[in-house]
Amino acid sequence: MPNYLRASELQSVLDAGRAIEQWLGCRAESDDRVIEWLRIHRDKLGRFEVTRFEVYDEGNRNFCDVYEFHSIEPDEPFGTEQLFDDSTSALKYATEVLGASEDRFVGSGMIQAVYLQYLRDFGELPKNRAS
After folding, report:
1. How distant, in Å, are the alpha carbons of 6, 69, 88, 95 from that of 104?
2. What share of the chain is helix, strand, coil (3-state, %, to 5)?
3. pLDDT value at position 19?
4. Residue 93: inside a domain
5. Under a CB-based contact definition with an 8 Å cutoff, are residues 59 and 37 in contact?
């Protein structure tokens, strides 16, 4: 089970320079399953970047590195991003526009644990193809 951050600590985690991530869900698209997740982190200029990823579900219980999965948008291989001057605005955008929940964020690198939990709960696709 993933270790979710408390809503009260999100801004302090971001302001300390650490990233947070959240699983947004999945959907069937043609013969594929697409997973959606987001990441919020501070960039080198001190701005807060919210990146939304839509990637093909190419994993399984032995390969859960969602960072390696291919984007559904060839023109946006590293997701779509929005920049904000402060962590409050970034979190507001993530929750109000992208549909994130304040109580479902995990620390950086933990999105794989959320993906694995998803696979345990709902199963892998045969050969990673939607039926």
Report:
1. 8, 22, 16, 11
2. 30, 30, 40
3. 98
4. yes
5. no
Kindly state the tokens that stand for 10: 């999100």
pLDDT digits (tens, 9 = 90+) for 91-131: 999 999 999 999 999 999 999 999 999 999 988 776 544 44
The predicted model scores a pTM of: 0.90
Domain span including residue 59: 7-123
Could you tell me the two tokens for 118? 């998803």
| 108 located within any domain | yes
Q: What is the pLDDT of residues 54-99, one digit of tens each?
A: 999 998 889 999 999 999 998 888 899 999 999 999 999 999 999 9
Asked if the structure places residue 130 within a domain, the reply is no
Determine the average pLDDT of the residues in 13-41. Answer: 94
Question: In sequence order, which ranges of the chain are alpha helices (DSSP H)?
Answer: 10-15, 87-96, 111-122
Q: Give the integer Cα–Cα distance in Å for 85 and 17.
A: 14
Could you give the number of structural domains in the chain? 1
Domain membership of residue 53 (yes or no) is yes
